[in-house]
From TrEMBL, chain A:
Name of the protein: Sugar ABC transporter permease
CDD domains, per database record: TM_PBP2 (cd06261)
Record-annotated membrane-spanning stretches: 30-54, 95-116, 128-148, 176-201, 222-244, 287-306
GO cellular component: plasma membrane
Record domain ABC transmembrane type-1: where: 91-303
PROSITE patterns, per the entry: ABC_TM1
Pfam family, one: BPD_transp_1
UniProt-annotated stretches for the region Disordered: 1-23
Topology within the bilayer: Multi-pass membrane protein
Major location category of this protein: membrane
From TrEMBL, chain B:
Coiled-coil zones: none
Keywords linked to the UniProt accession: Cell membrane, Membrane, Transmembrane, Transmembrane helix, Transport
Bilayer topology term: Multi-pass membrane protein
Protein's cellular compartments: Cell membrane
Pfam families: BPD_transp_1
Chief place where the protein resides: membrane
Highest rank taxon of the organism: Bacteria
Single biological process term from Gene Ontology: transmembrane transport
Species assigned in the record: Ruania alkalisoli
Name of this chain's protein: Carbohydrate ABC transporter permease
Annotated ABC transmembrane type-1 domain residues: 68-257
GO CC, one annotated term: plasma membrane
Residue intervals passing through the bilayer: 7-27, 72-93, 105-125, 137-157, 178-200, 238-257
Family: Belongs to the binding-protein-dependent transport system permease family.
Length: 314, 271
């Protein structure tokens, strides 16, 4: 499941309630009250997110095999990674995934949202079916698609065979491994994108559409000049979330191809995992983690800046 | 094209798409019911003589029952803890004034941007020094609090009119009473939505349990499923049976709380 996020959500403008009393004892009591409400979540987040985040950076500046003494190497890990062919390959593979996956889920999700936004029968049931894969785990999705796309006995190739097409080796073929993963991922996430866009569509005031209709704008023209611009905040959200999650792709790759064949589908996170637990190179793994984080951050910030050009808030 | 025909065509296309979407599930169930699937080369949607042999095999020869109990226990604990910690913090950000509130809330939101991958090395080292590698506590701790949950509940609590707690304050109620008796019951849908998300991410979680758990008897469902692959390379019926078993509880939960899940997802994309 894609983790929802808070990009672009406005803050409350309500005034704060003032502390009720200001006598010294009461103020202490009030402070304790605030802490009692806040600490149960603040402490775990501090201990298990913020602290390790800093720890990862510290580790990335060392050479370390997870057991012995940490040896300070400065930015050497970063330098090694940036000149390494393996790094280039895992980033290229991850980019391939993102570039293949995003248009697929967005266009599919948009078509579905538009269709299910009109008054067709059983639309709640249909919506439910399209959303079903979203709640399924990546491991199940990967297993099921491995089975569907099995090169020799899979049902997809059997169907293709029925049409006289000789199906490819899918996940056993270096050329088709990543497309197989993209296909399975798009199947899983389509419903998520659909729901976000559907919510966006339903927030568009009907009078705008009606006015355009009176002015004689056809269906296609209304889609292009009214619906899509007014849907841009939802589109923006989908793109931001999909990119953040896309760059972190791992579970389905691990279970579907294990990164193979011949490294053709090894992604960045798999490399982080391998560097840590297979090659005991915790420093390099941490440096790669930070490179990934910085990349995701940069892409997100660029989008936040770029949104002014194309995102219209009604 | 007349509106009615257009609508019929549209429905047909979307329904056909739904069939295609649903097909992998149907195929999974079908495979799990056909004994020795994968050995013969002619796939059939309705097996000749359906059998539960794959399920028997699964529960007899792998610790699958134990694995389900593990996953269930972890998911229920995580969900409960997240509901408690998130609703408390949500109340603090919605109703309590304290210095630096905006900055602290900003920090909470920022943690949502941090991918777990960045944390795996230090988090693993941290758990190792706490002696928590290969324990449930080690799996559990990073999921005790959720910035997303705090955010979701703060939004919900902000929409509860303040006049209500002012009235309660005048009646002499303190913050804990207002929180427990007044606000919590009013944000039920948001709590339900968070519960489903928390359960789902724990139930489906893979990378972190993969790193922290070693012993077979502690394994969670996704780990066991990934492990089946090595064990049953050609016995797709057993693997599909495992998939069906792992999807069913999530499916039940989803059908039960569909409204809240969809609201929760949809709500995050708005404004």
């Amino acid at each position: 499941m894609t983790a929802p996020s808070a990009v672009g959500i406005s803050r409350t403008t309500r005034p704060l309630p003032p502390p009720r009393r200001t006598r010294r004892g009461s103020r202490l009591r009030y402070t304790l009250t605030v802490l009692a409400f806040l600490l149960p979540s603040a402490l775990p987040l501090l201990a298990f997110t913020i602290y390790p985040m800093i720890g990862a950076f510290w580790t990335s500046l060392h050479s370390w095999n997870l057991i012995g003494v940490m040896e300070w190497v400065g930015l050497e890990n970063y330098a090694t990674l940036l000149t390494d062919d393996a790094t280039r390959r895992v980033f290229a593979n991850t980019l391939y995934y993102v570039v293949g996956y995003l248009p697929l889920v967005y266009i599919g999700g948009l078509a579905l949202a538009l269709a299910l936004n009109s008054l067709i029968p059983a639309r709640n049931l249909l919506r439910g079916i399209y959303f079903l894969p979203v709640v399924t785990s990546w491991i199940v999705v990967a297993l099921v698609w491995r089975w569907l796309l099995n090169p020799s006995v899979g049902v997809v190739n059997a169907m293709l065979g029925g049409l006289g097409i000789d199906g490819p080796g899918w996940w056993t073929d270096p050329y088709w491994a990543m497309p197989s993963i993209i296909l399975a991922s798009a199947w899983k996430d389509l419903g998520f994108v659909m729901i976000i866009l559907l919510a966006g569509l339903q927030a568009i005031p009907t009078d705008v559409q009606e006015a355009a209709m009176i002015d004689g704008a056809g269906r296609f023209r209304r889609l292009l000049n009214i619906t899509l611009p007014l849907l841009s905040p939802s589109t923006f959200f989908v793109v931001v979330i999909s990119l953040i999650n896309g760059f972190q792709v791992f579970d389905q790759v691990y279970a579907m191809t294990g990164g193979g064949p011949a490294g053709s589908s090894t992604v960045v996170v798999q490399q982080i995992y391998d560097l840590t637990f297979r090659y005991s190179s915790a420093g390099e793994a941490s440096a790669l983690s930070w490179l990934l984080f910085l990349l995701v951050l940069a892409v997100t910030v660029i989008q936040l800046i770029g949104q002014r050009r194309w995102v219209t808030y009604a | 094209m007349p509106e009615r025909i257009r609508r019929i065509l549209l429905t047909a296309v979307v329904a056909l798409g739904a069939l295609v979407m649903f097909f992998p599930f149907a195929w999974t169930v079908s495979t799990s019911l056909s004994s020795g699937a994968g050995l013969d080369a002619t796939p059939q949607l309705i097996p000749d003589d359906p059998t539960l042999a794959a399920y028997r095999e699964l529960f007899a020869n792998t610790p699958f029952a134990r694995v389900i109990a593990n996953s269930l226990g972890l998911a229920i604990t995580t969900t409960t803890l997240q509901l408690v910690t998130s609703s408390l913090a949500g109340y603090a950000f919605s109703r309590l004034a304290f210095p630096g509130r905006g900055v602290v809330f900003g920090l909470y939101l920022a943690t949502m941007m941090i991918p777990i991958q960045v944390l795996i090395v230090p988090l693993f080292v941290q758990m190792r020094s706490l002696g928590l590698v290969d324990t449930y506590l080690g799996v559990l701790l990073p999921g005790v609090a959720s910035a997303f949950g705090v955010f979701l509940l703060r939004q919900a609590m902000n929409s509860v009119p303040r006049e209500l707690d002012e009235a309660a304050t005048i009646d002499g109620a303190g913050h804990f009473r207002i929180f427990a008796r007044l606000i919590l019951p009013l944000v039920g849908p948001a709590l339900a939505s968070l519960a489903v998300f928390a359960f789902m991410s724990s139930w489906n979680g893979f990378l972190w349990p993969l790193i922290i758990l070693r012993s077979e008897h502690l394994q969670t469902l996704p780990l066991a499923l990934a492990g089946l692959q090595g064990q049953y390379t050609t016995q797709w019926d057993v693997m599909m049976a495992g998939s069906v078993v792992s999807v069913l509880p999530m499916l039940a939960l989803y059908l039960f709380a569909q409204k809240y899940v969809i609201q929760g997802v949809a709500g995050t994309g708005l404004k």
